[in-house]
Amino acid sequence: MFETLSDRLTAVFQRIGNKGRLTEQDVDEAMREVRRALLEADVNYKVVRDFVSAVRERAVGEEVLKALTPAQQVISIVRDELIKILGEERVPLQLAQVPPTIVMVVGLQGSGKTTHVAKIANLLKKEGRRPLMVAADVYRPAAIDQLQTLGGQIDVPVYSEGTKANPVDIAKNAVKLARDRGYTVVLIDTAGRLQIDEPMMQEVERIAEAVKPHEILLVADAMTGQEAVNVAQEFHRRLALTGLVLTKMDGDARGGAALSIRSVVGVPIKYIGTGERIDAVEPFYPDRLASRILGMGDVLTLIERAQAEITEEESRALEEKVLAGQFNFEDFLNQLQQIKRMGPLTQLLEMIPGIGQALRQQQVQISDDEFKHIEAMIFSMTPEERRNPDILKPSRRKRIAAGSGTSVAQVNQLVNQFKQMQKMMAQFGELAGGTGGRRGLRGLMRSRQALAGLGDADLEALMQQGAFPPGMGNPALGGPVPRKATNSPKKGKSKKKKSKGRRR
């Protein structure tokens, strides 16, 4: 969503970074560019004005202008001020001391309200809560069916009284049921409209008065820009919102709503929707979004996604196979499927500092369809071929290509890259701890837990110091081929020439 804004801001900082020492005029020129970039990203005018004013006031100080690295200090100031307008720190869901916590979810039709009721319920369930979803949108039968279908997918119960009951009574009865049966969180999906109207607002006011919710969350579509801000202001005026859920943050809109809504409405963003999958929602961290906007990536979120998908037992099993030199196509397929569950590949790459912008500058198109091709080729192998890739002779590769709808050249490329990755895996023990391979590798594979305690600046410094092993670039996923493998054909060619000379 913030690709264009990120590229514009990065270009501004690169220009001032090339100047060495900065003058007040340099700062003013940079702030004009920043102001233009934010306005073009559909950020609220007042938010832009206050933001630029605050950055300039701090950036023209004597300590910055006379510093040895003034450009870096300006970037740091911009990041700090971005975090301020986004909310400074994460605001979690406020849970009641005596369950159940009542969460009322409101919003317009098409914003993703019903879907995000289920997504938040799924997130709360993973945190150990017992959620109950309530279908209080009686005007749209499809909303009740949708919530029940989603409830079945995530194994969370749905309370419904059909389309003829009164929404206020549904909400009250659901809360009573939750108390009787020990549910800890009640999520009430209220009716939406295509636009704000008086009957809808009066109904949600009556529900709020009847159940006294601990949280009133507005689900707003981030792709609607400033209209999302206007909708939030009206709902807040009538209901006193306690939090916001911004959906479609993976879209291609300019992103102005996300940067404006917290400052204009005065209500914290609590969750963001990052895709269509039921688990594509995450708590909102202002500092992480600010880092993404400035092209610094979001390594902590990437680590958390990996921790959610890769268990300690899976890590240990993979460790044993790597140490024993038994990493095969079955293990590789499991790794691919884990990465797919973490989210779209483009989204994951954007979280690595500098990668997203580099791909855009080189106009490299990354598609998740490549995963499908690789999976098809592996699924077309026999169990024996997956466990022992060395037996993949030309006739077998031809059969695999025919079975997967790919070419023999693609199968050859996959097998060759896989063998390169096997060599890289064989070096992991040495990279992780020299002769103490087992203990060192275990430390490497658990390193994501240690990294979770570091800030973005710490992680970036570690990367610059070479603290991460070169094997982080996976050749099978389009990463760099190890230097040794790249040079080997040249060595082979030169030997061949020498032998010809000896024959002569």
TrEMBL record:
UniProt xrefs under CDD domains: SRP_G (cd18539)
Region (Disordered): 465-504
Alphabetic keyword roster: Cytoplasm, GTP-binding, Hydrolase, Nucleotide-binding, Ribonucleoprotein, RNA-binding, Signal recognition particle
SMART domains: AAA, SRP54, SRP54_N
Positions of GTP binding: 107-114, 189-193, 247-250
Domain SRP54-type proteins GTP-binding stretches: 268-281
Protein name as it appears in the record: Signal recognition particle protein
InterPro entries xref list: AAA+_ATPase (IPR003593), P-loop_NTPase (IPR027417), Signal_recog_part_SRP54_M_sf (IPR036891), Signal_recog_particl_SRP54_hlx (IPR013822), Signal_recog_particle_SRP54_M (IPR004125), SRP (IPR004780), SRP54 (IPR022941), SRP54_GTPase_dom (IPR000897)
Native source species: Sphaerobacter thermophilus (strain ATCC 49802 / DSM 20745 / KCCM 41009 / NCIMB 13125 / S 6022)
Gene: ffh
Key word Protein biosynthesis present: no
